[in-house]
Every structure is written in structure tokens, then in C-alpha cells.
Amino acid sequence: MYDEAYDSYRFLLTIDPQFFSSRENITASNLTVNITPGMLPPGMNGEIPFMSTPLFWILIGIGVGGLVISGLVIYHIRSRLPEHGTGVISRSSSGPVSEKDLTHIADQVMKCYYGDRNILIQVLKLAIEIAREGREGKAVGTAFVLGDSDAVLERSRQLILNPLAGHKPSERLITNADMRENIKELSLLDGAFVIREDGTVEAAGRYISIDTSKVKLSKGFGTRHVSVAAITQETRAIGIVVSESGGQVRIMAKGRIIFETC
Ligand SMILES: Nc1ncnc2c1ncn2[C@@H]1O[C@H](COP(=O)(O)OP(=O)(O)OP(=O)(O)O)[C@@H](O)[C@H]1O
């Protein structure tokens, strides 16, 4: 009786899991009582769980791969673009820089700069004028390193004798109209301007002589940009670079470009 029942239903019958765990003797009578034809307990119906199928692992692989690729793309975009955006002032613009433009840029830069906002605006204005006007009909490139000037001077050297040496601090203020004209002339020289937070121009023709290996600017920038980025990484200064080749004005802080004009 037991053998017949079990053999004829062995692919269809369900054995109650509790049945074998109980200490009762297995007898033909209680076996038949606990066998329910056609009823399969949950999880024992012969289907392979989805998590064990190759399709599941393929989908997991696609998901993880997608996340990794998205992360790499975002990292690449972030390392290429300025952190705070691109400016509104185009190289082809002419005329004076509007207060609105300057305010917009200064707002962005002051997030990374501890110095005087008005002095910052004066330096920006001058840099933008140099980028737009050039000198003697030619494009001019130069760089301003603003703030933390003792630390900057320690990490740089004169390329030529400092043309500003011997002039009174009051004559060397960036807010002084004569000084601004002088800076435009001196921008033809190699090297950078070093400017104190209070607007005193300490030096022109300064060569930044520090290790640039930790700078993470995207490829394509030359030594002017890279060395200014490096000095902003090592000091609390910000850098304002006028590119001779592209005409953009780029503002740098903490080793990164934080703003650039179009
Ligand atoms: N370490 C430095 N410190 C100060 N000025 C530098 C330094 N390196 C280069 N310069 C100045 O930058 C000028 C241009 O150099 P380079 O072409 O390599 O820079 P760049 O970043 O491509 O700038 P640009 O976009 O203006 O061409 C040099 O002639 C020199 O006057």
C-alpha cells in the first residue's frame, strides 16, 4: 500500500517538511496521511529562484558597470569645467566691463577668497581690460596673484629687476589710475604681478618657481596657467590669468579654475 502510493505519486506529491523532522516512526499509515497529492509547499515547487539565474547576475553587472561609467564621466566633466561656472564676458565684447558682470564674477570668487572684494573687482576689471584691449594691436597674456603676498613672494623670483621697486606703496595701489596704466604697459613683460590684499602691487615680472606636479588642470594649459594654479594650491592667494593664446580671463583658487570668461 505504501510503496504503491509513493511510487505512483513521487513526482506529484508533496511531503510535509514537518513530517520527517518529527520523531514519530515513519509508517505506511502516517505517510499516506501526510502526503497531499498536487500540493507543493512554498519554495519547493521545482522553480529556480530568479536570484540564481544568469539573467539576474547579468542585470546586476550592467547596473554596477553603468554606475561606475557614470561616476567616471561626472569626474571627468568636473575636472575639466570650472567649479563655479563660465563667465558672461566674451572676448569679442568691447567697451567697459559692466558693473553687473563684475558683481556676478566677484560673487562667485568671494566664495573662495578671504580678501577685500573691491580690490578683487579692481584687479578683475584690469585683467578683463587687458584681455580685450591687448597692447600695441597684439593679444597680451599676463597673470595676477592676489593676496597672501608674503607666501607668494617666498615661492617666486624676479625674472627681471622689479620695475615697481622704490615706488611708494601709495603710488603702487591698484586703484590708482596711473598705476593701472603702468600695469597695462608692464603686462608685456614675462612673469606675474604680485598684489597684496590691500591692493598694493608688490612686484611685476615675477616667476613662480614651485612644484606644479600636484596641479590637476586639464591637459592643454601651458606653464603660465599651471604655475598660477600651483601657487593658489600652496597659498591662500587667488590667481587671475589672462591668456595670450585664447584671450580668456581665468580665475583660480585652491589649484583649480573657478571662473573663466568665454
Ligand atoms: N612659472 C611662471 N611664472 C610666471 N610666469 C610664467 C611662468 N611660466 C610661464 N610664464 C609666462 O607665461 C608665458 C606663456 O607661457 P605658456 O605659453 O607656457 O603659458 P600658457 O599657460 O599657455 O599661457 P597663454 O594661454 O597665455 O599662452 C611665458 O612667456 C611667461 O611669460
UniProtKB/TrEMBL annotation:
PANTHER family: DIADENYLATE CYCLASE
Annotated organism of origin: Methanospirillum stamsii
Transmembrane segments: 55-75
Residue ranges of domain DAC in the record: 99-262
Catalytic activity from the UniProt record: 2 ATP = 3',3'-c-di-AMP + 2 diphosphate
SUPFAM superfamilies: YojJ-like (SSF143597)
GO MF: adenylate cyclase activity; ATP binding; diadenylate cyclase activity; manganese ion binding
Protein name: Diadenylate cyclase
EC number per UniProt: 2.7.7.85
Entry function: Diadenylate cyclase that catalyzes the condensation of 2 ATP molecules into cyclic di-AMP (c-di-AMP). c-di-AMP is a second messenger for intracellular signal transduction involved in the control of important regulatory processes such as osmoregulation.
Gene3D superfamilies from the UniProt entry: DNA integrity scanning protein, DisA, N-terminal domain
Cofactor(s) in the UniProt record: Mn(2+)
Superkingdom assignment: Archaea
UniProt keyword list: ATP-binding, Manganese, Membrane, Nucleotide-binding, Nucleotidyltransferase, Transferase, Transmembrane, Transmembrane helix
Similarity remark: Belongs to the adenylate cyclase family. DacZ subfamily.
InterPro entries: DAC_DacZ, DisA, DNA_integrity_DisA_N_sf, DNA_integrity_scan_DisA_N
